[in-house]
Amino acid sequence: MSIATLRRAAKETVSGLPPAFWWLWTSTLVNRLGGFVATFMALYLTLEQGHSASYAGLVAALHGLGGVISSLGGGVMADRLGRRPTLLIAQLSTAVSVAVLGLMHHPAAIAAMAFVVGAASNASRPAVQAMMADIVPPEDRVRAFSLNYWAINLGFAVSSAGAGFIAEYSYLAGFLGEAALTLVCAIVVFLKIPESRPDGTAGPLSARKPDEEIGLRDVLRDGRFMGVVGLSFLIALIFQQGYVGLPVAMGADGFSSSDYGIAIAVNGVLIVALQIPVTRFIQYRDPRKLLIVSAVVAGYGFGLTAFADSIAVYALTVCVWTLAEIVNSPVQSGLVVLLSPVHGRGRYQGVSTMSWAVAALVAPLMSGWVIDRYGAEWLWGACAVIGMVAGLGYWVLMRGLPREPMVEKPSMEKPSVKEKEKEKEAGAAEVVA
């Protein structure tokens, strides 16, 4: 592939998106560059503070519980107050609570602030997703969600490496650094990102009138959407095993933490390297087929881990399920927008985000119970079964789903001379009329 071809591909990937999206994208990248707490909280509590592993697990669970609750609250706020005010409140609250958490030493205070940090940091996600759906045309949404996911993983990869060095110097510096970067995100939102909440026009699949109010009860009664949320939970449950089940299984097989680090690093490297080109390949393909295939590949990717006996094989299995993750994430986000009424996007995105937060709570319990009782091989077999169930679920739920413009490739053909003449005649007739 020539350099000119690569340049053209890169230009087509980033062109055509509105400036507000890129400011939102920048805010996401900066936010993930400061991702210190979620990555190093366990080490901070056990090594720096001297607490037990069980206490660290409790704090992590409270952090996740805060995220579950705020997913719903953030969605409601995004619809009622607006996307921009919700982002500002969430990011300012995150900045303050993270800084306070770094100064806490009493176990009860640390646990309480961890809950607050989890709630504050997760409250912005429904607003971000809803705002992207508001400002990006339907045909570009898969590409936009993919670019945003790419920014999340790029920021996480950089922050993980940099935060490790910061932690060796001072954990408090890490907390304060995350607080500062989150404050920068709030400033970007305040200065550069306008409010995007629609005036209440119904979405493509919504039968509601514009003036009808969308409540959480209405979202929970939306059978097809809640089915998709349930499938999203199953997919998240599979992917979470890469961070909770995989390190435990590799440790039981005699591998070190650095060995696990090498294997899981493949995930971030592949996402950064392949997210954009893969999205170009799948952008105009049928999302129904993509979700079915990605669910099955994710399940069997983890299922193959049962046969891993070296770092190379473990890394190979990570490659398989990472490809499924690259496809599933932007397409799933686009599907949520497709099923959401425009004036209820915040609540719908909040419920969708909650599925991942709940999975983050359930996955450690699931992996620990299965590995202790039956062995890691049964965990990987269960992942394969869950992937098959999710694929079947997508096939059942999305039969009859109309195709949105986001999956229809726009025509690149130039209009003929006759077509141009017809357009001119039609325009002249309108002027005369």
From TrEMBL:
Q: Which GO terms describe its molecular function?
A: transmembrane transporter activity
Chief location: membrane
| Top-level taxon of the source organism | Bacteria
Q: Report residue spans for region: Disordered.
A: 408-433
Q: Where in the cell is it found?
A: Cell membrane
GO cellular-component terms in the record? plasma membrane
Q: Which InterPro entries match?
A: MFS, MFS_dom, MFS_trans_sf, MFS_Transporters, Sugar_transporter_CS
Basic and acidic residues biased stretches: 408-427
Among the Pfam families in the record, one is: MFS_1
Transmembrane portions of the chain: 21-47, 53-74, 86-104, 110-128, 149-167, 173-191, 225-248, 260-278, 290-308, 351-371, 377-397
Question: Major facilitator superfamily (MFS) profile domain: which residues?
Answer: 20-399
Keywords on this record? Cell membrane, Membrane, Transmembrane, Transmembrane helix, Transport
Please give, as recorded in its UniProt entry, the membrane topology of this protein: Multi-pass membrane protein
Q: What is this protein called?
A: MFS transporter
Q: Which organism is it from?
A: Streptomyces purpureus
